[in-house]
Design goal:
By secondary structure, the chain is of the alpha+beta class. The chain has helices at residues 39-49, 55-58; strands at residues 2-9, 15-20, 26-27, 34-36. The structure holds zinc ion (ZN) (2 copies). Residues 9, 11-12, 14, 28, 30-31, 33, 75 line the site of one zinc ion.
């Protein structure tokens, strides 16, 4: 088990110190999504920290909602609001 600083969740965009499990997977502590600490993801995280919120500028691969209300601890989870009211 090893620790990786500056992991980025590819689902909710939370940034955190990740723990690599026995399968080599880093799970997001916020949403359980797959996370990554490759150069590209670290760059995205650094841009988020610097205040960048444009999906293209951030280099996000998948289409999705706007990056709003991002915080490093909680990321942003616009796709998981769930409950229909
Ligand atoms: Zn996540
Ligand atoms: Zn990556």
């Amino acid at each position: 088990m090893s620790l990786r600083p500056d992991c980025l969740c590819n689902d909710c965009l939370a940034g955190f110190v990740g723990i690599v499990d026995s399968n080599g997977v880093i799970a997001c502590p916020q949403c359980g999504g797959e996370s990554c600490d490759c150069e590209g993801c670290q760059l995205t995280l650094h841009r988020l920290r610097a205040g960048e919120r444009d999906r293209k500028a951030l280099g996000l691969r998948y289409p999705g909602n706007e990056v709003t209300n991002w915080t490093e601890v909680e990321g942003c989870m616009p796709l998981r609001q769930g409950a229909e009211s």
